[in-house]
Amino acid sequence: MSKQKSRNTGIEMALRKILHGAGFRYRVHRQPIKGVRREADLVFGPARVAVFVDGCFWHGCPEHATWPKNNADFWREKIETNRRRDADTDTRLDDAGWLALRIWEHETAETAADRVITTVRERRATT
User: Fold this and answer.
1) How far is CA 111 from the centre of its chain?
2) Tens digit of pLDDT per residue, the chain (127 long)?
3) Which residues contact 29 (CB under 8 A, 6 or more apart)?
4) Which CATH superfamily, name and number, covers 10-126?
5) Which of 35, 50, 42, 43 is nearest to 93 (CA)?
6) What kind and span of H or E run contains 101?
């Protein structure tokens, strides 16, 4: 499992390419708010949108999550801890006036980009 990429995954790179091509600018792998050691995959500062591209296995996707049979207790606890941390991150960002947008790795880059573009535009319009 240590060989699994956590940055610059296929969906993340495809999403970045579409967003950049559409004229959107963002920061990559940044902490949206100071003092919280959580890193978003894409950060749209002025709109206060933090995009997280979550892996189906690591974050317990409701559609594609699998539970390993070997060392099952360890993996269940690991994935549940990730889920709790994700929820805590979303809450912290919300409290600071940010919006956490979660993209699953199984989503197409086009669908994800549409969600990001719509969200960023809406947030820009209200700020």
Assistant:
1) 14
2) 444 556 788 899 999 999 999 999 999 999 999 888 899 999 999 999 999 999 888 888 888 777 888 999 999 999 999 999 999 999 999 999 999 999 999 999 999 999 999 999 999 988 6
3) 7, 39, 40, 41
4) VSR Endonuclease (3.40.960.10)
5) 50
6) strand 99-104
